[in-house]
Amino acid sequence: MATRGNEKPTPLSLTREQCAAIQIAEQFVLENGYTSAPAAEDRSRIALELADDPSRIDRVLRMRHDSLKPHAYGLYSGGPEDPLAWMVIFEYTDRVIALVTRIEGKPREDPGGAAVLVKMDAGRLRAAKQHMDMRLIGLPRLPSHEAVSTFCRTMERSP
Questions:
Q1: How confident is the model at residue 24 (pLDDT cuts 50, 70, 90)?
Q2: Does some domain include residue 144?
Q3: What's the pLDDT score for residue 156?
């Protein structure tokens, strides 16, 4: 099996805003049907990508289903040009990796993932899925979901 990025988690050092970005992105992939869990029942809340046909939302959700793992893999900052923007990276699931391998005829060196852009907009953090392959090799991996959640809960309680 191909290497899935940087297997060693990075030390945990996140800001409140980064914690919020991760939480918002994880909720986004869950509600919009990218994980193995059911999508939000209210179909009007489903965020569509450019290629999605709004008249065929059930087909869109079938194609999305179980395509991304539910917890963030990594995080890119928007940098000095956009300090309140983050790309939260999610790994593709084994189902997607197997499909890509069948299509391409061989496994990829880096199976990759997809990004959810979380950005400050009108005073609120908002999320939007970015339709692109993201390389995982070389991307610092976040520690376990439990470690990130615990750290972020501690950040919420601190002054």
A1: very high
A2: yes
A3: 79
pLDDT at 131: 65
Q: What is the 3-state secondary structure (H, E, C) of the chain?
A: CCCCCCCCECCCCCCHHHHHHHHHHHHHHHHCCCCCCCCCCCHHHCCCCCCCCHHHHHHHHHHHCCCECCCCCEEEECCCCCCCEEEEEEEECHHHHHHHHHHHCCCCCCCCEEEEEEEEECCEEEEEEEEEEECCCCCCECCCHHHHHHHHHHHHHCC
Query: What is the average per-residue pLDDT within 92-119?
Result: 93
Q: What is the extent of the structural domain holding 105? A: 16-152
Q: With a threshold of 0.70, does the pTM exceed it?
A: yes
In a domain, 102, yes or no: yes
